[in-house]
């Protein structure tokens, strides 16, 4: 288990996507081993690769890491994307946890029954524009710096950008009332490693479509 990190998941966004984003932002090349059937998952479970019997799983530095937040924290610390001291790390964690809450809400949109989808989208827009985005807009306004924490690029910037782009996929004008977030999006998108990840042909995954849901469900259920 040496060399590039190896990511075990299905060929779609899900919980692995933030891990892909963070590795890409750190400039780390990684390999992907896609689960295609329930048997692929069962094999990993039976050979003891999955501590809690579930993916995402990332092979890195001789470990088989599971639990998305633990993996993200490890990558952030390893590649200096986690602030310069405990207070900055705490701030980054707070910002990231809120981003994850919104990200999960957006991620589950495609899984909603057709008759609930409109209401679910309204919930996403409401929480994004009234609970989450105003906080990040205020942070950027109050300190006047390019990045969320310590005027240094961190996992908080990466994960916020990922979620801003996902929110725009749901509602293209969702950032209209947030000029500082718009400029933040443009600025972070221009960081060379991220710019590369946003290009066609990268390992970034497209939004899950309705036709893909049954394939994913067959692996996990």
UniProtKB/TrEMBL annotation:
Its EC number is 2.5.1.18. Residues 85-208 form the GST C-terminal domain. Keywords: Transferase. One of its GO terms (biological process) is xenobiotic metabolic process. It is an enzyme of class 2 (transferase). Residues 3-83 form the GST N-terminal domain. One of its GO terms (molecular function) is glutathione transferase activity. PROSITE patterns: GST_CTER, GST_NTER. Gene3D superfamilies: 1.20.1050.10, Glutaredoxin. Belongs to the GST superfamily. Alpha family. PANTHER family: GLUTATHIONE S-TRANSFERASE, GLUTATHIONE S-TRANSFERASE A1. This is glutathione transferase. It comes from Glareola pratincola. The gene is Gsta1.
